[in-house]
Amino acid sequence: MNDMGMHPVQVIAVTGGKGGVGKTNVSVNLALALADLGRRVMLMDADLGLANVDVLLGLTPKRTLADVINGECDLKDVIIPGPGGVRIVPAASGTQAMVHLSPMQHAGLIQAFSDISDSIDVLIVDTAAGISDAVVSFVRASQEVLVVVCDEPTSITDAYALIKLLNRDYGISRFRVLANMAHSPQEGRNLFAKLTKVTDRFLDVALQYVGAIPYDEAVRKAVQKQRAVYDAFPRSKCSLAFKSIAQKVDGWPLPANPRGHLEFFVERLIKQPTADSSV
Predict the structure, then answer these.
(1) Dihedral of the CA atoms 175, 181, 183, 185 (nearest 10)?
(2) Cα distance from N-terminal residue to C-terminal residue, the chain
(3) 80-117 pLDDT per residue, tens
(4) Do 12 and 127 contact (CB within 8 A), yes or no?
(5) Are 53 and 88 in contact (CB under 8 A)?
(6) Is 267 exposed, middle or buried, given 0-12, 13-18 or 19+ CB atoms closer than 10 A?
(7) Mean pLDDT score, 47-67
(8) Alpha helix (H) ranges present in the chain?
(9) Contact criterion met (CB below 8 Å) for 270 and 98
């Protein structure tokens, strides 16, 4: 039997409302920790205004997703090898390109992702900060939404605003929550409790606590080296925490659809928001 395209891909959007919660750091190190478990991981930098992933890892992409959309190259020409065998799709700046695709470009992009879906197990999407249309599109299209929070006064408010928008306007009702830069495991649980206190009162959503990544000086040192902390300081507290979080993430259910989630992901992505406005 031909097994082409029958391989489910886990698509995880990493988001968090506003900036400053360490989203890109979480995306990159979670990708590395999952690769360490033997998963074939692709990391998509979806921060269209600020391409963070390549900067964080000291990579200089020659092409981006925009070149694929314009038919100038294949998706495989855009992908850059990152540490630990993680493949990286650099950000295509200018979201409009994604929204106003011709039917041919549209089909081409879906085909491009279909071609690689058999060679990846997990796609991690590092979204931009804030609640722009682009962020909403990427999150809606993903199967799992990982909301990163930290102990900053605005972090919980921003996370709540994002969850509320995604729930009320787009019917997303399941969110995973990760506390980053936590000074203790208890701090992480307290942040989660603060968030569920408001979501339980006002929204019909299920929040699942994934755990906490401890505050760790090694992160800053790794950033200065333009390396992922998981790669540069594998024995650090923070890297060990990413390892255990990755084991949890690896146990999340896979999409039931035999075609996996990748085509659906791209479909949802490019049908936004033009399809909605015509209803």
Answers:
(1) 30
(2) 41
(3) 999 999 999 887 655 555 656 677 777 777 778 878 88
(4) no
(5) yes
(6) middle
(7) 77
(8) 23-36, 52-56, 65-69, 75-78, 96-99, 103-117, 133-141, 153-170, 185-202, 217-224, 229-232, 237-249, 262-270, 274-277
(9) yes
As a residue count, the chain comes to 279
Name which of 161, 147, 143, 123 is nearest 211 in CA terms. 147
Residue in this structure with the two tokens 């495989």, named with its chain if needed: 76
Q: How far apart are CA 52 and CA 211, in angstroms?
A: 24
**What CA–CA distances, in Å, run from 74 to 67, 78, 80, 174, 254?**
8, 7, 13, 34, 27
Coil, helix or strand for 44?
A: strand
Nearest alpha carbon to residue 125 among 103, 92, 173, 150: 92
Q: Which residues of 23-46 are buried (b: 16+ CB within 10 A; e: fewer)?
A: bbbbbbbbbbbbbbeebbbbbbbb
What DSSP line would sit under 232-257, residue for residue? H-TTSHHHHHHHHHHHHHTTSPPPSS
